[in-house]
Design goal:
Arc Repressor Mutant, subunit A, alpha/beta, globular, 16 helices, Rossmann fold, 11 strands, 3 domains, Helicase, Ruva Protein, domain 3, five-stranded parallel sheet, 14% strand, two-stranded antiparallel ribbon
Length: 392
């Protein structure tokens, strides 16, 4: 096998480079143009659909444009206050010429927040905490909006465009509530030197708060709903990836990968990766649907500890509702026939589905005139079927 073929072409579990994105050029271009024009964009899509990779690719493409990109994942931080500190530290490092001047800038612009600045000259890093003791007593939501205003003022002073990209933005709304919507809108709509991209995976929540004229985010910016990548693009990508490694792949095998992964980008890459490794270990050959199933079996076996932990953490009624989602394809789950089959009352089914959605096990997907529930990780279903067959 050629040296170049020893590297698995199917990547998953991390941010992809701009050149590695599949059929996302229009979405990537919209993010970049929003930032260059100083606009505001809500990027909404399920987990595993590639939002973070699109945002990373936008940051990569803007690297030489002079735009200061501040990209942060809101879920990483334990509070809005910690997110605000990280945002400010990132801004002062990029918008001030030296670390020494960065400290002076923070103290001047954020005096009322009582910032404490720590430097590490060895790796040229800076950290900011609020409050004289490093523990701010101020409410965290105003801290965040104050920091956003400081960033806009810093960008104006530096005569540069800043872009604040907040991934998993729903975390801010869930923590701050309706007040967060009002205060963030009231703050960012006055900014002229900072663009904003609010990205999130709670599609129903973000759709609701941006689509309701009574909510603060109504018409604040553009919306982009991230959908599945067309199958034809995936077929070309899969065929090329295997062919470049001197492997063959049957058309039915490609369809099997897409069906099992339910066209979720992360899972397609993950399963294709496992298939490629299986062929490599066998010295090459042709990928068939049967071999795809074998690769999936190995994949879900490796994930057995995490899937088992998830399953065991559910209540009995949540387990029943989750099996209904799997066995009924997520549709008509509150119909009399389905409720009778699984022995749940309509109100109980609704409550269990909501709990599973909140935990990120399933998600709502709107179809024409109906709601369908999908697994966030489509490979959980084959794992559960295998696990329960083995227990018989």
């Amino acid at each position: 096998m050629p040296t170049s073929a020893r590297q698995n072409p199917f990547e998953f579990g991390g941010e992809l480079k701009a050149t590695s994105l599949i059929d996302r050029e229009q979405e990537l271009d919209l993010v970049i143009r929003t930032i260059e024009n100083g606009g505001k964009l809500f990027l909404i899509g399920p987990r595993r659909y590639g939002k973070t990779s699109i945002l990373a690719a936008a940051e990569e493409r803007l690297a030489d444009s002079g735009v200061v990109v501040l990209r942060y994942d809101a879920e990483i931080y334990e509070s809005l206050g910690r997110l605000a500190e990280a945002l400010l530290a990132g801004a002062v490092k990029q918008l001030t010429p030296t670390l020494e001047k960065a400290g002076d800038t923070v103290r001047r612009l954020a005096a009322k927040l009582k910032p404490q600045i720590d430097y590490d000259l060895a790796d040229q890093s800076i950290s900011v905490t609020f409050g004289a003791s490093g523990k701010s007593t101020a409410p965290t939501l105003p801290l965040l909006t104050d920091v956003l205003t400081i960033i806009d003022r810093m960008a104006a002073g530096a005569q540069r465009r800043a872009a604040v990209i907040l991934d998993e933005f729903q975390q801010i709304i869930e923590e701050g509530g309706a007040a967060a919507e009002r205060q963030i809108r009231g703050t960012v709509q006055r900014h002229h030197h900072t663009a904003y991209v609010f990205a999130g995976s709670k599609t129903r929540l973000l759709a609701d708060i941006t689509n309701d004229p009574a909510r603060a985010f109504w018409k604040l910016g553009s919306r982009l709903f991230l959908g599945p990548i067309p199958r034809e693009a995936w077929r070309e990508f899969l065929e090329r990836g295997f062919a470049n490694s001197a492997f063959k792949i049957q058309v039915d095998a490609m369809e099997r990968i897409l069906d099992l992964a339910e066209e979720v980008p992360f899972n397609i890459q993950q399963l294709a990766n496992a298939c490629w490794e299986m062929l490599r270990a066998r010295g090459g050959g042709t990928l068939t649907p049967e071999r795809v199933d074998d690769a999936l079996g190995g994949l879900v076996t490796r994930e057995n500890p995490s899937y088992t932990q998830l399953w065991n953490s559910l209540t009995q009624q949540q387990k029943i509702a989750l099996k209904a989602v799997i066995e009924q394809g997520g549709a008509r789950l509150r119909s009399a026939v389905v409720l009778s089959r699984y022995g749940l009352a309509s109100s109980t089914m609704h409550k269990m589905l909501k709990a599973l959605d909140t935990r990120g096990v399933i998600r709502e997907e709107e179809a024409i005139g109906s709601i369908r529930y999908r697994l966030e990780d489509p490979f959980f279903a084959p794992w559960l079927r295998r696990a329960q067959r083995a227990a018989i």
